[in-house]
Design goal:
This protein is of the alpha/beta class. It has helices at 2-34, 67-81, 101-111, 128-137, 153-162, 181-199, 227-230, 235-248, 253-258; strands spanning 38-39, 48-54, 85-91, 119-122, 143-148, 166-171.
């Protein structure tokens, strides 16, 4: 019996050592590949055509506003107003009619005087991987600034590099490691899971859908594509819109474009 217990202890110790080695190696690999692409001072973030805002819940389980949510929106608004990004792709989870991260972020960005034309919403950003895969495959993004916390950016940038995106990370205002200790701890494990997803399980996004052209598209330099043209419409809706436009008989296309608003 004593021999069996000793053998089990040895196996357990070896398994623990293996887990520690794998965890440390995975985190070092992610950090080594991404740390040079993260800017901690927002004023030093370089210009990119698109700023990708990762969704997160508005409130905390214990009550109160999520500080990481507010920090991401504040940074996104600051980067757009300073001209460091031309357009904001706001991505988040919308898995039920009662939980809609993109709409909530859109409303709060509007309160910070970000115009509707400067934002595109991605309603299927169920995870960091899905958000980045959809930014490439649905929205046609190739160069992007990732807007998030410094504990999240290494994993996000690693995925972006894996997907072939030219990405840089712009970190939100600093909080101490102690204040964000649980998120740092979570990320240590998430980076291990990340490598398994990419290299062992060949992960794919949950949902893609039709392509949506962003206003930064090369075919329309300097122009903003109205929302009703950016989002593909079902045929009956499109026909109804065409009938409505014909009834209104606008004097020119510019009058027609100015008559549509997003609510």
């Amino acid at each position: 019996m004593a021999g069996l217990l000793k053998g089990m202890a040895i196996v357990g110790a070896m398994a623990l050592v293996l887990i520690v080695v794998v965890t440390v190696s995975a985190n070092y690999w992610v950090w080594r590949k991404t740390h040079a692409s993260i800017t901690l001072e927002s004023s030093q973030c370089v210009h990119e055509p698109v700023g990708l805002v990762f969704g997160t819940s508005y409130g905390l389980r214990g009550g109160g506003e999520n500080p990481w949510y507010r920090a991401r929106l504040d940074l996104a608004a600051s980067l757009w107003k300073s001209g460091q990004v031309d357009h904001l792709l706001v991505s988040g989870d919308n898995h039920t009619r009662y939980y809609n991260e993109p709409i909530r972020m859109w409303r709060d960005l509007r309160r910070q005087q970000i115009p509707d034309a400067a934002m595109t919403l991605d309603y299927a950003g169920f995870s960091t991987f899905d958000t980045l895969a959809r930014s490439r495959d649905v929205f046609g993004v190739s160069r992007v600034t990732l807007i998030s916390q410094r504990w999240h950016l290494p994993r996000a940038l690693f995925i972006a590099q894996y997907l072939g995106l030219e990405a840089r990370g712009c970190a939100t205002r600093k909080r101490s490691v102690f204040n964000d200790r649980w998120m740092w701890a979570r990320e240590i494990l998430a980076r291990v899971q990340l490598l398994a997803d990419l290299y062992l399980f060949d992960r794919h996004p949950y949902f893609l859908g039709p392509s949506i052209v962003l206003p930064t598209d090369a075919e329309t330099p300097g122009n903003i594509i109205p929302v009703y043209r950016r989002v593909p419409m079902p045929a009956p809706v499109e026909h109804a819109l065409e009938d409505l436009r014909a009834l209104r008989k606008p004097d020119n296309d510019q009058d027609l474009k100015q008559s549509w608003h997003v609510f």
